[in-house]
Amino acid sequence: MAVVEIRGLTKHFGQVKAVDGVDLSIQEGELLVILGPSGCGKTTLMRSIAGLEQPTAGEVLIGGRVVNGLPPRARQVAMVFQSYALYPHMTVFNNIAFPLKAQGGMTTEARKEKVEWAASLLGVEHLLDRKPRQLSGGERQRVALCRALVREPTVLLLDEPLSNLDAKLRASARDELQRFQRRLGITTIFVTHDQVEAMGLGDRIAVMNQGKVRQIGTPQEIYHESGDTFVATFLGSPGMNLMEREDCLLGFRPEHFLPQEAAEGRHNLTTFSLKVTRIEYLGADRLVYGVVDSVAGETRTVAKLPSTVTLSIESGESYPFFVQKQHLRFFDKATGTRTEPNPL
């Protein structure tokens, strides 16, 4: 295990600032998720940590040592790519053993023991004689992890390793990956654009956009106390509702926007009239889309209603909805930065 520190890291590709002055500290044994949309710089940041990209400026420290000048193999890190990058002509055994052969200095018997140790960690001992084409997506993922771990790295870097799995398998793979990481206690950095993965896996989440870290915190902190409008609208399904007021932007999450019939026993309510334009039925939830009046005119707004709210709602009609004041968030109009509560 090792602490990873990133100090003022910048990476330019021509005129494009892929990473723009990032500062991060990842603690020993922590699982940090770097979350952001495509093109935000998260993979470039990870590749800079691995040594696959040389930063334009700034430093990467692993275990207190600056590693900027070191090649990937000397950094004691291992990386699992989105494609898994398994060699199709090799057996699982030889895929896992490949990094050990490349570094040399190990007997055939010692390599065999290491491969069997790594395979046992992830339960793929029975697959060692197969080729990658004979494996399921989940099995390929576990083999790629075995190959990363066989050299016992101090830091594990995962670049969207679950994106090639179907939705049902991704859920079980997240659980497996988190239990495995907790058991080994290895410092892990996980890159994804999927907020469900990020919220479900991370001890902390660093949200990136346009090369910068916009906010870092626990899943609860970045969701409930979003630091700016980008984080607020990027997280959540759907993201936070925003509407203009005279002196700020007012925000609230769709699950906190409820019809008046659900107000019994609730206090400190801010009410709105929602003109419904569309309804989506999603099994356990209903998404009610509509518009409310704001200083900017009609503002598109969505409510996420659980199945326990049985109110009959029709498109084209207007209904009173409310938000409890403790769920309201306020943002600066010019910068989008979170501000102090504003009396309504």
Describe the structure.
The chain has 344 residues and is α+β, with helices and mostly antiparallel strands. It folds into two domains: 221 residues, 3-Layer(aba) Sandwich (Rossmann fold), CATH 3.40.50; 97 residues, OB fold (Dihydrolipoamide Acetyltransferase, E2P). It has eight helices and 19 strands. The chain has a six-stranded mixed sheet with strand order 6-7-8-3-9-10, sandwiched between helices. It has a five-stranded antiparallel sheet with strand order 13-17-14-15-16, with no helix packed on it. A four-stranded antiparallel sheet has the order 2-1-4-5, with helices on one face. Helix 2 packs parallel to helix 4. It is elongated and about 75 Å long.
Query: Using only CA atoms, what is the Rg?
Result: 24 Å
Amino-to-carboxy terminus distance:
50 Å
Number of separate helices:
8
What is the CATH first-level class name of the largest domain?
Answer: Alpha Beta
CATH architecture of the largest domain: 3-Layer(aba) Sandwich
How many separate structural domains?
2
Main sheet: which strands, in order across? 6-7-8-3-9-10
Instruction: Please describe the biggest sheet, giving its number of strands, its sense, and whether it closes into a barrel.
Output: 6 strands, mixed
Offer a concise description of the structure.
The protein is α+β, with helices and mostly antiparallel strands and 344 residues long. 25% of the residues lie in helices and 34% in strands.
Could you list some keywords that capture this structure?
344 residues, Rossmann fold, 8 helices, 19 strands, OB fold (Dihydrolipoamide Acetyltransferase, E2P), 34% strand, 2 domains, elongated, six-stranded mixed sheet, alpha+beta
